[in-house]
Structure formats: structure tokens, C-alpha cells
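It is worth pausing here to work through a concrete case rather than discussing structure prediction in the abstract. The textbook approach is simple: state the sequence, then state the predicted structure, then interpret. We follow exactly that order.
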Amino acid sequence: MPEKEATSTLTEPQATEIAPVLETLPVEPTITETTSPTDVPTQPVSSAASFPDASRYTWVKVLGSLRKPLFLTHAGDGSGRKFIVSQAGTIQIWKGDRLLSTPFLDISDRISPQALGAGYTERGLLGLAFHPRYAENGYFYVNYTDRRGATVISRFQVSSDPDQADPQSEFLILTVDQPYANHNGGMLAFGPDGYLYIGMGDGGAAGDPENRAQALDTLLGKLLRIDVDAGTPYAIPASNPFAGGGGLPEIWAYGLRNPWRFCFDALTGDLYLPDVGQNQWEEINFQPASSSGGENYGWDFREASHPYEGEVPVDASLVEPVAEYSHAEGCSVTGGYVYRGVQLPEWQGVYFYGDYCSGRVWGLLRGEQGAWVSQALFETGVTISSFGVDEAGELYLTALAQGEIYRLQAR
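Step two, the predicted structure:
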């Protein structure tokens, strides 16, 4: 969950369209170029790493009056339906031009009571991922904080009605106790390898006081990778970096503060892994599809690329972010997606991300020489809790405080 309450600093949009960044922001990219390792096998968009003219595009409100919309995704089953996650414990189906009145799933009786009220909380129903073979097995996975505050990863199954899940089909995959009410992570996603990846925050309190992100004997502050198709309730992929010892075998990467939203590029399989910062910096990390795992993204030795606390061990190999921005531009990064849709071909290969507090949206891409460039594109004026994509790869964002969903479209 984006961890800073920011609704008091935002104004609700007065129209259904959101303006692009024009004169109010620098013309040049707002983030210093960084160079990736030479073995990163990503596909450059152009040698100049140029972005389309954002003034020709707009975010159009397509749904409103929603309760705590936190995430949007699809089932990949060919139905074209979109699934909207509410922090308050429900999943609704957006089918054609209708939002179905009966929830696909309602587990509001199982989640933290804090998520049911109107106040700010980082607990609740936080993530949803459909099994790659959902059309065959009907399985989907959720990430929620239960009534005692622990992180729960569970599997559910659809009922005989394709628009209704069976709430009694819950199968517990993993439970992780949370020492504090914040930095719980929340994202679930299946990678191109078919394994389930789970984003876990460091467990909370400022500055990771118990150094969980760097400790390999806890799942907190990590990106996990498990096989939900083998074992009960899951198996450890043999290729996990600590499958043979040295750390908990579920760990794929570590040194993370709160990896709220991440994604795999639908074309290349590369992983984009933003991490919410402490007081000064927000960061975007990148992991190529060829990675064998084990990356240390630096928290809490570093906040983004900047020293934070303690001396870095001489044998530590920290992975630098490919983009970062200061709290002069926001306060809580919300990771998005690499655009792979068909309606807006000029945006092909651009990674979108935003800030929950400022409502700003950036694009990130890499040129042929390996330099990453990030540029501010849109000022939305809404609390961006997540981005989402439909089956066609078109891009959306969810506005938590406003109870709205927007889609990126050409003017």
C-alpha cells in the first residue's frame, strides 16, 4: 500500500480528462540518465530515448463512485473482463460497459478491520493475480492482511458461475506475521517462468529498525518466488538463489523497503521493481529476464542510490536503481507497466510509473547505448494507488481517494 496519506494536498479533477505536463515541468527529463550493465538484454525504444508528445494524450475517467479502488487487472481468459480490487475486501467485475453489482469475491469479514473504515491504512485486500492457466483451473491468488494484521497469501477458485468466485474455496498458501501496520507490500504477479512472485515490505517502523530487509532469515523486505503448482501448499523452485541454503529458500531478491507494485514486461519478461522510499528518495529498480536472482537492492544501507544508514559491508554488491526522484516531486512511488497495447503504438516499450502523493506520472525507457531516461509526462491530481492493464494491454490507473479509474487515451 502506498504509505503516505496525501489526500489533503490534492485536488479532485474538475473534468473527466487529466492534463499532460506542459509548461509547468522542465522540458528535459527530470531524472539523471543512468547506464545499465552491458549484459541487460532489453530492447531499446530508440537511440535518442525520446518520448511521444504527452499533450496529444489524456487520462479519461471511465469509472467513478468506487469504494477504495486499489488495483485493476484481468484474468487472461479471453473474456475481456477487468477485475477491480477494493482495499475494503471485495473484487468487482467490470464487464463490457457495466460494473457488476455482485462482487466476484467478498472477503471483507476476513481482512483487517482498519481497512473497512474511511481513514488511511496500509492494510486490507492488497493484491490479486490470476493463475496463467486460469481458463482451465479457475485459480486466482490474493494478498491481504487478516484481522490480526498478518500478511496472508491465499488461493481461491471460481464457482460454476464465471462471474462468481467461491469464498469457501480459500486455500492458504503463506502467512507472514507483520510487526507493524505499515510496509506490508501487497503485490502478486506470475512471472514468465510460471512462478508466483510476492512483494514483501520490511515490516514497518521508520528506517527498518531491526534490519529485516538485509536479513536473510526473514521474508520481510524481500521479493519472494514460489511454485504454486507443486508441493503443498507450495514448492521452492530449484533455481531460487537460496534454495541450497544461506537464506530462506523463498527469497528471490532482498534489500527492499516496500515494493508496493511491480511488473514483468509482457514482451521481454524483464522485471520493473519500484521501492517506496523513506524520507527523501523514491526508486525504480530493474531486473533483466536473464537474472538468476539474489539481487540486493540496498535498503537500508541506501535510500535509492543515496547513503541512508550504516556502512555497506565490503563483500556486499548492491544493485543501483535505474531511476529515482526526490520528495520535491512526490513521496510514494507507484509502479506501473510497460505499455504493450495496440491503441497507442507510439508508447510501445515505455514503462509508466507514478506517485501516490503528487499524482505525477513519468515514463521510463532505455536507449541503444544503455542509458535510462525518465521524463515527467502527466499531472493527474489524484492519488495513484496502482496502474493496471486489460487483456489488450491498454493502460489504466486507480485513484484511491477519489474512488475513480482512468484510462490513457489519445485526444
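Step three, interpretation. The radius of gyration is 20 Å. The longest helix spans residues 134-137.
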